[in-house]
Amino acid sequence: MTQFKAYETVFHGEPAIGLQAGKYEAIMLSHVGGNLIAFRDNESGYRFLREPAESEMESFKNNPGVHGIPVLFPPNRYEDGRFPWKGKVLNFPVNETATGNHLHGFLHTAAWEVEEFGATGHESFVTVKIDVDEQHAIYQYLPFRFTVKLTYSLGADGLRQHLFVKNNGKEEMPCLLAFHTAVNVPFAKGSSSEDCTAKLTIGKRWALNDRMLPTGDFQELSKEELLLQGGGISPFFAAMDNHYTAVPQNGRNRMELTDRKEGVVLVYDVGTSYKQWMVWNSGAAGGFFCPEPHVNLVNAPNVDLPAEEIGLFSLKAGEIWEETSRFYVKPV
């Protein structure tokens, strides 16, 4: 009989919530950005997400962007830290000096509250939330009253992620999100990166300027990118910090990482609300890459293109936006 359990634990000295569902295990660090830092299949020895080693915890806490599943809100880069919104300009700190941009928003470094954790007859789960109002430090940059809730559920079919955003205030607010998901390549102990190929539901590639901001034009996909879109290719075929439109295939928007040696495929089905992908592989250094589902185009409020086309979503007073994503393994 499959055992489902949720419990308080410690991850390299950091308070955490652990989830168990039979062979599967997951670990949530609520106080470090609401980051699900581990998703494992202990029976097969798979570690799907890039986890920080104990010696890396301080650097991870200072820059929690390339381990686990960091929440970006608002995601990626904003030119000069400027965020035009409904006749006003919000000013974010310029925290990427090389480009003079603001990078990655405010939730991946914030402390989230554990709202609930537990187990049912078919899954274990944890819900973390962050409430922003006039008293919260984030309000100085995003002067809106809102709640973000993130639920991870672990069951026989893998890991489910549910994201919920509600506008608690009176003014229309931006709803721009992404996940800087860091996936191990390989995820199996006995495999190498040469055993693995990746496939993503990318569409067109956005042209980026020297500040890594979209110009509004597209670039032709290379033959390797066509394989990334089609039959699959190593995620380290070249250094990638690339931005693409998302075009669902067979009704789904997903990344597939195939381990031919193990004969299995890790599927990251992100849902069709994510209109863009970022793909970053740390200079093709190997070991991991980040297939990042984005609601919006990078720098969207500063781009003169239709809001729906670039995922410039908003929530009016009392409105809710939500999306569900899933990780699971299937045979090749």
**Protein structure class:** mainly beta
Radius of gyration: 19 Å
Helix content, binned percent: under 10%
Q: Shape, please? A: globular
The number of E-state strands comes to: 27
Largest sheet: 8 strands, antiparallel
Name the beta content range: over 45%
End-to-end separation:
27 Å
Low-confidence stretches: none
Mean pLDDT: 97
Strand and helix order: EEEEEHEEEEEEEEEEEEEEEHEEEEEEE
Strand order of the largest sheet: 11-12-13-14-27-23-22-18
By DSSP (H or I, 4+ residues per run), the number of helices equals: 2
Short synopsis of the structure:
By secondary structure, this protein is mainly beta. Helix content is 4%, strand content 46%. The protein has two helices and 27 strands.
Keywords:
globular, 46% strand, eight-stranded antiparallel β-sheet, single chain, Aldose 1-epimerase, Aldose_1/G6P_1-epimerase, mainly beta, six-stranded antiparallel β-sheet, 332 residues
Please characterize this protein's 3D structure.
The chain has 332 residues and is mostly beta strands. The chain contains 2 helices and 27 strands. The protein has an 8-stranded antiparallel beta sheet with strand order 11-12-13-14-27-23-22-18. It has a 6-stranded antiparallel beta sheet with strand order 17-25-24-21-19-20, with no helix packed on it. A hairpin with a 5-residue loop joins strand 19 (202-208) and strand 20 (214-219). It starts with a strand and ends with a strand.
